[in-house]
Q: What sequence folds into this?
């Protein structure tokens, strides 16, 4: 494939009136069920490594797929706070689940990546950065909340004064096939975060699954190029209607809500609220929420040497603000309590993220709720603070003169 | 301003050679670093208050403020206290060793805004190191500023940093006052915390005075309260904050303090912008 995906940063969706933004004849397109395999095959032939949902480890996770048979056909997930179970649907749906513990960030922002290298060179060192080309990924099954999460991480890794070359290369090459949700988990709250469930932008192709196939939308020139190789048919009104009802079903099933009104000021104005102690009694500081979160970006770079000590990789790994060492400075962690670490995570995600990146860090996917071993639900934590905001910030407690040492 | 860090490849460290090591205090030394590559050396510049990431292959990186003269090209001094594994590793290196450097990073002291104003600098302990480039810069164009007052506090007389330079700074037109927590025989200057020194220093026009402070957070906190009670406006007070910096480019999340990334938005902040978050413990 010669054309480049237009999901490339900075945000450059095709102009609204460009042909790529519309299906060729202005009508909805229909991809027969059996032709999903053709789409996967075409992407593979175009040099993409296709990754999508798979049944593994008793969950629906994202991994490499070689055909439609690898998808979790006929399976769904039951989710609630602290609970995730797979269950047969009783049909043959490819995408009849919501979201699992994985997110696409593991491909764009790999859990382990070498950011720089050092090779002993005589008495000194040759310092370098790796320039290997990463895999060219095609993501199959990206939900609306996940499109939003990718956009959030675009701002983090590509929108500041320094860009992360590892993320950038992977992001630029990625082809995105979104899938509209047709059901919602009890943990979903994308409607509160204005991120879903409908996929509206940020994809190359978007699918809505109906029993006999998919309604297909084209979102970019690259999507158009791929679609042109498929045996697409115009969708009938009946098919379009079924797609619309399926999408509406997801909206109707969303039961969780988070009131985001003035949430930045609400949380930053309640940094001393007693609720932080309350949640600290339930939080294990296990880092699960940050690992499953599709936007959490904290990491640490450490030197990893071979046995000779002559070849060193500077290895970046996902880290978490829930780890005690994360804030370690001058001999002690700054955030030395679960209270302070939970507060950091939630105020960053929902409040200070707005200052830093111009949007919330939360996309309402509900993963942190499902995968919390003690079932902490951030929407309930926000509601609790909102229902009894503290009257104001208390001052730093007085410190004795003896502590005001110059050193 | 700087071309040493490629915004699109910010992980690349450059080789620097330790040209000279000056033992300042027990466990504290100044390392004069020079780029091996002449072109990088020529293009490298920094502003007072900025920092570099120093890299020892096998041990890792550490954020160190630049403590040299911003107008002196070619040599980049860093005053470093042995604390963690990287700084301890550095302490074991002889002169002429090569290490890595990424930088400069971060915000700078507001030297430009000092023109025509009285300026008070308050340093605690090794906090004098990040202020020294501002001192050099102010003194290099002494006529542009009003009164220049430097207040230095240390634990004890032997813990005073750069003592040999104080008289040079005085001769160049800066009032330098020193104080120690614990005096010893032969000490004939102030005793007490540096914030007490600030209470006593004469300020002719506090509302037009600019204050910069660097030291332990609690020392800066009381310095600021003292400065405000003397009539220096909160928006004329600048602090240099420290947090655990891992990437220096705003991507790793470690150094967040409220909504600020200390590495990217700081380390130098105007006080009124961070006043509310400094009031909260363990943030």
A:
């Amino acid at each position: 494939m010669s054309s480049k995906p237009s999901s490339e940063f900075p945000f450059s969706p095709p102009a609204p009136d460009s042909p790529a933004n519309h299906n060729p004849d202005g009508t909805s397109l229909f991809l027969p069920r059996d032709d999903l395999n053709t789409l996967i095959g075409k992407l593979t032939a175009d040099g993409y490594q296709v990754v999508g949902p798979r049944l593994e480890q008793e969950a629906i996770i994202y991994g490499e797929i070689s055909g439609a048979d690898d998808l979790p056909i006929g399976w769904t997930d039951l989710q609630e706070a602290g609970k995730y179970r797979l269950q047969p649907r009783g049909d043959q749906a490819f995408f009849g689940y919501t979201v699992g513990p994985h997110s696409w960030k593991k491909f764009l922002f790999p859990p382990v990546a070498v950011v720089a290298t050092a090779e002993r060179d005589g008495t000194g060192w040759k310092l370098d950065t790796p320039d290997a080309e990463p895999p060219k990924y095609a993501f199959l099954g990206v939900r609306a909340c996940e499109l939003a999460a990718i956009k959030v991480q675009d701002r983090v890794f590509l929108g500041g004064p320094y860009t992360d070359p590892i993320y950038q290369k992977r992001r630029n090459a990625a082809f995105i096939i979104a899938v509209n949700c047709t059901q919602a988990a009890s943990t979903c709250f994308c409607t509160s975060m204005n991120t879903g469930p409908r996929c509206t932008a940020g994809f190359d192709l978007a699918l809505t699954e109906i029993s006999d196939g998919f309604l297909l939308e084209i979102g970019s020139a690259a999507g158009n190029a791929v679609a042109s190789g498929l045996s697409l048919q115009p969708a009938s009104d009946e098919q379009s209607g079924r797609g619309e009802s399926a999408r509406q079903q997801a909206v109707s099933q969303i039961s969780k809500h988070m009131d985001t009104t003035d949430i930045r000021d609400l949380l930053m104005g309640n940094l001393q609220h007693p609720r932080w102690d309350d949640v600290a009694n339930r939080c294990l500081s296990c880092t699960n929420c940050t690992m499953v979160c599709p936007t959490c970006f904290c990491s640490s770079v450490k030197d990893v040497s071979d046995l000779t000590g002559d070849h060193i990789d500077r290895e970046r790994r996902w880290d978490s603000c829930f780890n005690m060492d994360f804030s370690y400075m001058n001999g002690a962690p700054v955030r030395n309590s679960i209270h302070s670490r939970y507060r950091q995570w939630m105020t960053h995600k929902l409040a200070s993220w707005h200052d830093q990146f111009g949007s919330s860090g939360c996309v309402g996917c509900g993963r942190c709720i499902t995968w919390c071993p003690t079932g902490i639900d951030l929407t309930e934590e926000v509601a609790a603070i909102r229902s009894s905001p503290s009257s104001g910030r208390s001052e730093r407690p007085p410190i004795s003169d003896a502590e005001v040492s110059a050193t | 301003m700087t071309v040493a860090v490629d915004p699109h490849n910010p992980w690349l460290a450059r080789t620097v050679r330790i040209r000279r090591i000056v033992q300042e205090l027990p466990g504290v030394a100044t390392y004069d670093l020079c780029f091996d590559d002449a072109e990088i050396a020529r293009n490298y510049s920094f502003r007072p208050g900025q920092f570099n990431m120093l890299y020892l292959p096998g041990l890792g990186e550490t954020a160190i403020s630049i403590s040299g003269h911003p107008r002196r090209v070619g040599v980049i001094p860093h005053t470093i206290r042995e604390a963690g594994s990287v700084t301890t590793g550095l302490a074991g290196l002889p002169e002429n060793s090569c290490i890595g450097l990424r930088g400069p990073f971060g915000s700078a002291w507001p030297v430009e805004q000092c023109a025509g104003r009285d300026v008070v600098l308050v340093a605690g302990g090794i906090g004098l190191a990040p202020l020294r480039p501002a001192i050099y810069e102010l003194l290099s164009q002494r006529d542009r500023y009003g009164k220049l007052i430097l207040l230095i506090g240390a634990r004890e007389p032997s813990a005073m940093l750069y003592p040999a330079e104080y008289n040079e700074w005085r001769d160049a037109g800066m009032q330098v006052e020193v104080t120690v927590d614990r005096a010893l025989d032969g000490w004939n200057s102030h005793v007490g915390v540096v914030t007490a020194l600030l209470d006593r220093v004469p300020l002719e026009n506090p509302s037009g005075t600019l204050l910069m402070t660097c030291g332990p957070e609690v020392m800066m906190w009381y310095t600021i309260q003292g400065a405000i009670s003397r009539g220096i406006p909160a928006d004329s007070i600048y602090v240099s904050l420290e947090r655990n910096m891992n990437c220096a480019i705003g991507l790793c999340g470690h150094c967040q303090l409220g909504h600020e990334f200390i590495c990217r938005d700081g380390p130098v902040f105007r006080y009124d912008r961070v006043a509310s978050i400094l009031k909260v413990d363990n943030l």
Helices of chain B lie at 38-43, 85-91, 128-140, 166-171, 194-200, 217-229, 262-265, 271-278. Chain B has a mean pLDDT of 94.
